[in-house]
């Protein structure tokens, strides 16, 4: 497969990839450029790849129509807490399942894995009732607690377990001989070596929290509390029609920071995901 | 030394006991979380499904299997299940074949391949709702896609307002959004196939296509299985795309199970029936996952 | 420094017993090698001494103190692992000072001890590097440095040379031996390589299938193996074993009669053992058909058929015979071994 290719085949492959790229790259490009077009230019025939006229007022309107800064902050701080919390909970559990011998560990692991079979959509009704009973409806607690401790973190625990299983046992034995207890072995030896897996878990968890949509619309009711995905769909005029250019401006602001982080750190992103326990 | 005295002289906190205590301490947050946020809700959802519960009417009555009878008699259910099946099947087939094609392309020795990898992967990190909004904008009757088609003299359909094209649209939008993940997993698997095997196959006279079919596919089959499970289970959870693009329409043509569940429970406030639909979703996920693990024994040729 | 004593030490995983009661006394400052085929339980025994495996029965004493229930860190031992187990995210100096750091030693004390150990092992110029920047031999030295830095009562080595190439292995063998002579710390060393065992040990413990087969000085095991297993395990190429019967006229075995020393008390069925290097070319010897000749330069190894038996001989002489031809050999009567056919034990 990986032989040196003839120039003709190379040109064909480049051509094929460029064509395939269109649906991957064009929407993002369209989103960014259209967000600075006046509404009348958005539906121009033929479509413009570069704005004929610039209109940045849409960006100001985003903040006038909704408490968008507040919503941005909501999404950001929730995603940050969920990411940090999941990293802690999952690395501890994954480590114990991989490395510590304790009675019923396999049975308990099977129970935890049930979380993979029970997506939060299945339990959304009782979760709503439970949080209603605890007075946590229209707060951010459901969006923080469930991902960190519930079903979404199980995948992270699984990834961490696979990583720790592959870590040489000798390192920990050496640490025991050197005088470390379990907690210090975990903290000083195992965790620093698990950076690639932790990175992958962080990326997955952040994106999952950042994209969460069903849960916010079920649990949150006031615009002050909304998260970004929910807020994006709320830019409608009095008749319920979408205010496209404003919506695209808000979508651009939602997408760009993560996209920039990805482009800067794409090597870590891609390789981190590829080299976790996902392979089996 | 007799066994009895030997035991008496041992401290209670032996190495093994201390370690076991540490183990329980480490898994405690996760286990307690699973009990509170997964197992108890799962029990509750079953309990609710045995009740007629209308929040607006403030009624909560035990009705036994009535909700399940209602499920079987629900005239909408066949449509919902069909829509779910078409969506999931279309998504898995398109996603996996495109992911494999892209992975094979990215596995070639070409300059600047990392740039292509980055671009193909980029939709994964674009906010889901943002991505979907852009597509819903492009798929409008007077939107960008039909605009481009008209440049070639083709009159495109009203994508989101025609049943067939609406389903195609939600599938395709979702495929482009997430195919990058599977692509990367396949790429890693392809790069894990020992080079000597290809060299040996070439010495044996196998061409590129035969090498792919007889060496590559069998060796990456564990990854194919794993990604297909993740993709299928993920496809059953799809919600935001439907809510933004079609709201389940036109008619009920894109109302998949989760969207129907959301409507019944949170728009019509039928929590009892919504819970019954949750149980159905759980059973489908469980059966599919189980079936795929069973399939592993027959289809996966090679495993470490 | 201390003596180390194992008293009917047993290990079982559930029903499966892997060590069936091991008794060994190791004197203060002694270098003892545990040797045996893979799966014989030697590594498990070492790990039990270290405290990395629990002890099912019996007692392990270090310096007269029962350590069965002590954590590894409380046993005052240091261990060198097969894959070195250097912490990849720490520099050489940090790796070496790590155990002292976690025993509350002061910075100055750690620095001093690390420098002392690094000087002994010639590691001073590597202290700021990370394990991935080191060669196999250098990693091996760092692993040893980490062990000696704390001045423990007992050193434990778990097949430390098995990842090195043949040449480096010989060098490191000498270094470990030299280190032991210099520091005089009680050492238990596990290997499956009998040459390592022979060249390094004060005493060798030969293990097989969870039992101790024989304990003794290297040459004692070579000269007087206690049973068939030890006889076959120690020495390379392996001892020739021929089963037959002790009779008046010699040892009768499948078509040949091998000579026996005069005044032998034993009789009956037995196994006749003769090392390849103890076969002598002699015109009055037994006729053997040459199958294969392998000259190494300093000596010649000959595979041949004697009666119905395939045997090997090693000779200082250069041999011009071709495969299929006949040479005449006789055993050195002072160097033959006889083993009981029933018990496999040595017969005098």
Automatic annotation (TrEMBL), chain A:
GO terms for molecular function: ATP binding. Residues 72-265 form the ABC transmembrane type-1 domain. It is a multi-pass membrane protein. Keywords: ATP-binding, Cell membrane, Membrane, Nucleotide-binding, Transmembrane, Transmembrane helix, Transport. The chain crosses the membrane at residues 12-32, 76-97, 109-132, 144-164, 185-207, 242-265. GO terms for cellular component: plasma membrane. GO terms for biological process: transmembrane transport. It is found in: Cell membrane. InterPro entries: MetI-like, MetI-like_sf. Gene3D superfamilies: MetI-like. Pfam families: BPD_transp_1. Belongs to the binding-protein-dependent transport system permease family. This is Sugar ABC transporter ATP-binding protein. It comes from Devosia geojensis.
TrEMBL record, chain B:
It comes from the Bacteria. InterPro entries: ABC_transporter_permease, MetI-like, MetI-like_sf. The keyword Membrane applies. This is Sugar ABC transporter permease. It comes from Devosia geojensis. Residues 81-292 form the ABC transmembrane type-1 domain. It is found in: Cell membrane. The keyword Cell membrane applies. GO terms for cellular component: plasma membrane. The chain crosses the membrane at residues 21-48, 80-106, 118-138, 166-190, 219-246, 266-291. One of its GO terms (biological process) is transmembrane transport. It is a multi-pass membrane protein. It holds the Pfam family BPD_transp_1. Its main location: membrane. Belongs to the binding-protein-dependent transport system permease family. Keywords: Cell membrane, Membrane, Transmembrane, Transmembrane helix, Transport.
UniProtKB/TrEMBL annotation, chain C:
Residues 4-234 form the ABC transporter domain. SMART domains: AAA. Pfam families: ABC_tran, OB_MalK. SUPFAM superfamilies: MOP-like, P-loop containing nucleoside triphosphate hydrolases. GO terms for molecular function: ABC-type transporter activity; ATP binding; ATP hydrolysis activity. It is a peripheral membrane protein. Its main location: membrane. This is Sugar ABC transporter ATP-binding protein.
């Amino acid at each position: 497969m990986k032989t040196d290719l003839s120039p003709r085949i190379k040109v064909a492959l480049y051509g094929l990839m460029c064509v395939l790229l269109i649906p991957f790259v064009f929407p993002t490009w369209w989103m960014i450029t259209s967000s600075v077009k006046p509404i009348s230019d958005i539906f121009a025939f033929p479509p413009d790849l570069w704005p004929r006229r610039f209109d940045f007022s849409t960006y100001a309107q985003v903040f006038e129509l909704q408490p968008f800064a507040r919503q941005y902050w909501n999404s950001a701080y929730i995603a940050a807490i969920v990411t940090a919390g999941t990293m802690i909970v999952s690395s501890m559990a994954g480590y114990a399942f991989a490395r510590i011998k304790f009675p019923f560990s396999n049975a308990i692991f099977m129970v935890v894995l049930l979380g993979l079979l029970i997506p939060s959509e299945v339990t959304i009704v009782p979760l709503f009732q439970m949080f209603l009973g605890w007075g946590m409806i229209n707060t951010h607690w459901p969006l923080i607690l469930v991902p960190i401790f519930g079903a979404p973190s199980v995948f992270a625990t699984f990834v961490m377990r696979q990583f720790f299983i592959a870590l040489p046992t000798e390192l920990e034995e050496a640490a025991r001989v050197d005088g470390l207890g379990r907690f210090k072995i975990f903290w000083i030896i195992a965790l620093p070596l698990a950076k690639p897996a932790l990175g992958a878990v962080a990326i997955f968890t952040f994106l999952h929290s950042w994209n969460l949509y069903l849960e916010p619309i079920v649990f949150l009711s006031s615009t002050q509390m909304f998260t970004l995905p929910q807020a994006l769909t709320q830019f409608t005029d009095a008749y319920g029609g979408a205010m496209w250019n404003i919506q695209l401006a808000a979508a651009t602001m939602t997408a760009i920071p993560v996209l920039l982080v990805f482009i800067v750190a794409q090597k870590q992103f891609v390789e981190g995901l590829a080299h976790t326990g996902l392979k089996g | 030394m007799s066994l009895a005295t030997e035991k008496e002289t041992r401290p209670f906190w032996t190495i093994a006991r201390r370690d076991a205590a540490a183990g329980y301490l480490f898994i405690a947050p996760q286990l307690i979380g699973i009990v509170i946020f997964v197992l108890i809700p799962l029990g509750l959802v079953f309990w609710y499904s045995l009740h007629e519960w209308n929040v607006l009417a403030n009624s909560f009555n035990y009705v036994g299997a009535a909700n399940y009878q209602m499920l079987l008699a629900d005239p909408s259910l066949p449509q919902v299940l069909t829509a779910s099946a078409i969506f999931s099947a279309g998504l898995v087939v398109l996603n996996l074949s495109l992911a494999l094609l892209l992975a094979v392309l990215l596995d070639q020795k070409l300059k600047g391949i990392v740039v292509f990898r980055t671009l193909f992967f980029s939709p994964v990190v674009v906010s889901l709702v943002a991505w979907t909004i852009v597509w819903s904008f492009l798929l409008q009757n007077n939107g960008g896609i039909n605009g481009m088609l008209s440049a070639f003299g083709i009159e495109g359909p009203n994508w989101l307002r025609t049943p067939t094209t609406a389903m195609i649209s939600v599938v395709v939008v979702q495929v482009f959004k997430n195919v990058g993940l599977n692509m990367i997993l396949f790429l890693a698997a392809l790069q894990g196939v020992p080079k000597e095997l290809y060299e040996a196959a070439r010495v044996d006279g196998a061409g590129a296509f035969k090498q792919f079919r007889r060496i590559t596919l069998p060796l990456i089959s564990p990854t194919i299985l794993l990604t297909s499970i993740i993709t299928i289970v993920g496809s059953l959870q799809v919600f935001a795309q439907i809510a933004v693009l079609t709201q389940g329409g036109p008619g009920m043509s894109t109302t998949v199970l989760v969207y129907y569940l959301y409507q019944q429970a949170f728009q019509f406030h039928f929590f009892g029936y919504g819970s019954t639909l949750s149980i159905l979703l759980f059973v489908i996920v469980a059966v599919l996952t189980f079936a795929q693990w069973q399939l592993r024994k027959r289809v996966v040729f090679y495993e470490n | 420094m201390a003596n180390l004593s194992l008293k009917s030490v047993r290990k079982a995983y559930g029903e499966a017993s892997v060590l069936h009661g091991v008794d060994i006394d190791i004197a203060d400052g002694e270098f003892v090698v545990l040797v045996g085929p893979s799966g014989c339980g030697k590594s498990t025994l070492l790990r039990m001494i270290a405290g990395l495996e629990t002890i099912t029965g019996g007692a392990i004493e270090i310096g007269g103190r029962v350590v069965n229930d002590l954590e590894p860190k409380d046993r005052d031992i240091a261990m060198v692992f097969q894959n070195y187990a250097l912490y990849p995210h720490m520099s050489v100096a940090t790796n070496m000072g790590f155990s002292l750091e976690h025993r509350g030693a002061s910075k100055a004390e750690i620095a001093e001890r690390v420098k002392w150990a690094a000087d002994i092992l010639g590691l001073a110029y590597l202290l700021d590097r990370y394990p991935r920047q080191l060669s196999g031999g250098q990693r091996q030295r760092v692993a040893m440095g980490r062990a000696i830095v704390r001045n423990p009562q007992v050193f434990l080595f778990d097949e430390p040379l098995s990842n090195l190439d043949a040449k480096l292995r010989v060098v490191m063998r000498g270094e470990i031996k030299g280190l032991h002579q210099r520091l005089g710390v009680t050492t238990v060393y596990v290997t499956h390589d009998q040459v390592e065992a022979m060249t390094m040990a004060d005493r060798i413990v030969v293990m097989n299938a969870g039992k101790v087969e024989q304990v003794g000085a290297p040459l004692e095991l070579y000269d007087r193996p206690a049973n068939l297993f030890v006889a076959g395990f120690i020495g390379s190429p392996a001892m020739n074993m021929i089963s037959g019967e002790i009779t008046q006229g010699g040892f009768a075995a499948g078509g040949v009669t091998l000579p026996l020393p005069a005044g032998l008390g034993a009789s009956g069925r037995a196994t006749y053992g003769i090392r390849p290097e103890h076969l002598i070319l002699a015109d009055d010897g037994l006729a053997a058909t040459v199958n294969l000749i392998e000259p190494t330069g300093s000596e010649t190894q000959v595979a041949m058929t004697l009666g119905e038996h395939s045997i090997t001989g090693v000779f200082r002489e250069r041999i011009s015979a071709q495969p299929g031809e006949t040479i005449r050999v006789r055993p050195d009567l002072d160097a033959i071994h006889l083993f009981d056919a029933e018990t496999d034990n040595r017969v005098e």
